[in-house]
Write a structure and sequence with these properties.
Number of strands: 7
Low-confidence stretches: none
Mean pLDDT: 92
Distance between the termini: 27 Å
Order of helices and strands: EHHEEEEHEE
Radius of gyration: 22 Å
Structural class: alpha/beta
Strand order of the largest sheet: 5-4-3-7-6
Helix content: 40-55%
CATH architecture of the largest domain: Orthogonal Bundle
Strand content: 15-25%
Number of helices: 3
Length: 150
């Protein structure tokens, strides 16, 4: 399964993986050792909690390794149609907005990064400047006009 990532997004995942494998693993190992020193492990809440943290950490490490291994870098290319990686300038009711179409791993609404799998992202893919799309929101439909694509 491919994971669409920008070059920056891939680097961010690699940094997180390195942090988890080095710093976080060591912290959890120390917590486990400390909690085990309290004795009876069957009724030791701190030990059970540390084991749960360790399981979660190892699961996240495996997930990141899989995403990095199967990463497909989004190449920004100039196109007259919206593709994954495009920065799209929209207008709606006189209000201008800007979004970058990214893979689900990089979604950050506060930075204007939306997934190509989101309702807006799906509606934009393959569209050109000047086209109007309609996206169903929670309480109404919103019309957007594509003003520019970078």
């Amino acid at each position: 399964m491919s994971h669409y990532l920008t070059k920056e997004g891939l680097e961010k995942l690699k940094k997180e993986l390195e942090y988890l494998k080095t710093v976080k693993r060591r912290e959890i190992a120390e917590n486990l050792q400390h909690a085990a020193s309290f004795g009876d492990l069957s009724e030791n809440f701190a030990y059970q909690q540390a084991k749960d943290e360790q399981a979660f950490l190892e699961s996240r490490i495996l997930e990141l390794e899989e995403k990095i291994k199967n990463a497909q870098i989004i190449k920004k290319k100039s196109s007259n149609k919206v593709t994954i990686g495009s920065i799209v300038f929209l207008s709606s009711n006189g209000k201008k907005e800007q979004f970058q179409i990214v893979g689900p791993e990089e979604v950050d609404p506060f930075q204007g990064k939306i997934s190509y799998q989101s309702p807006l992202g799906k509606s934009l893919l393959g569209k050109a400047v000047g086209q109007v799309i309609e996206v169903k929101g929670p309480d109404r439909k919103i019309k957007y006009k594509i003003v520019d694509i970078k």
